[in-house]
Write a structure and sequence with these properties.
single chain; 2 domains; seven-stranded mixed beta sheet; four-stranded antiparallel beta sheet; 10 helices; 14% strand
Length: 354
């Protein structure tokens, strides 16, 4: 850290993304990427836009809004597209949090929430998950701040039913409630329809997981037009051209290729069920998942040790050092072949522990 670094950021601990090592070829089960390539339509449309990169992208994201209206039934004034869902989440911290409106979120959840709070200089309160790692909706009724809930939660994969999300939105009429639906397509219930009923509700989603565009960086927020206008004020004060031409085109192609999207979801759910069962047969505790990953621990080997031994074998999973979950690992659901290789490696490692 240099002497030029601003005092307001010197105590900031940045978010640590999942490993992206370049030293060898790995089976990557650590960052919840899709094992499937982007839709052929997404690739074709992105390639067509590559010839126009000398021109700025459309700051209104008209192509994407049209696709969203056709496929998702969301009007253009109710949606904001961003550079990944991390950007829309940061916009929400900037727009809806301050000293009088602290951020409120679970203690075990997406690790960027406390970073965004500290980055933007807003106070925050973490509410412990229950003993079974579920969110208790009662903890968020009248929370006294801007609520952020990942649903399904990460890294647990556990989802709240839509009825409980509605209770939280209704129970905070004077504060914004942000529901982060990065993994909703894998078994959760989306709260998008509730944004028409609750003017304080913002739903965020990403194209990184279920639509195979992690490298494209595309996210979106859905809310009433007034909340979207607030967020646009932040966007146009920071980066008006936040979604590039190729990503915008790829996103439209991914949205419209519903058959490809649905096929990949079905396969992910099938492989997730197989993986969870295989881990349980090996004695693992596996939390119920509505995401494209499972969260699991074994009484026969520590979480960090399993992570390291798998990495030595060319398989990456995600380990967290937070005391409450340090014996767990988050395992992305890859292809059927990748998960078979993962289970084979785990079985071999456990055999060595005898």
């Amino acid at each position: 850290m240099t002497r030029f670094f601003s005092e307001k950021y010197k105590a900031l601990t940045p978010y640590v993304p999942g490993e992206q090592p370049q030293d060898r070829r790995y089976i990557k089960l650590n960052t919840n990427e899709s094992p499937f390539p982007p839709s052929p339509a997404a690739v074709r449309m992105a390639a067509e836009e590559a010839a126009k990169l000398q021109l700025y992208s459309d700051p209104e994201c008209g192509v994407l809004k049209q696709a969203a209206a056709e496929v998702l039934g969301i009007a253009g004034d109710r949606i904001l597209f961003t550079n990944g869902s991390d950007e829309i989440l940061n916009f929400a911290f900037m727009a809806f949090c301050d000293a009088e409106h602290p951020a409120v979120f679970p203690d075990i959840t997406y690790g960027f929430y406390p970073v965004f709070a500290k980055l933007n200089g807003v106070p925050y309160r973490e509410i412990p998950l229950k003993d079974d790692f579920t969110v208790d909706p009662e903890d968020y009724i009248g929370a006294g701040g801007t609520v952020f809930i990942a649903n399904p939660n990460a890294p647990t994969g556990i989802a709240l039913p839509l009825s409980e999300i509605e209770r939280i939105a209704a129970g905070n009429p004077d504060n914004v409630v942000v529901i982060d639906e990065a993994y909703v397509d894998f078994g959760g219930e989306s709260a998008v329809t509730l944004t028409e009923k609750y003017p304080n509700l913002l739903v965020t989603q990403t194209f990184s997981k279920s639509r195979s565009l992690a490298g494209g960086r595309l996210g979106m927020g859905i809310a009433c037009p007034e909340l979207i206008a607030d967020l646009n004020t932040v966007k146009y004060s920071t980066n008006p051209y936040n979604v590039n031409r190729m990503t915008m085109a790829a996103g439209a192609g991914a949205l419209r290729d519903t058959a490809y999207f649905e096929k990949n979801i079905r396969e992910t759910l099938r492989v997730r069920e197989w993986t969870a069962k295989a881990l349980q047969e090996l004695g693992f505790t596996v939390l119920p998942s509505s995401a494209n990953f499972v969260f699991a621990k074994s009484d026969r080997i520590g979480g960090e040790e399993l992570y390291r031994k798998l990495k030595d074998r060319g398989i990456l999973i995600r380990h967290f050092t937070v005391p409450r979950i340090r014996e767990f690992n988050r395992i992305t659901i890859g292809s059927a072949e990748e998960m078979q290789a993962f289970i084979k490696a785990v079985r071999a490692i456990l055999d060595e522990c005898v």
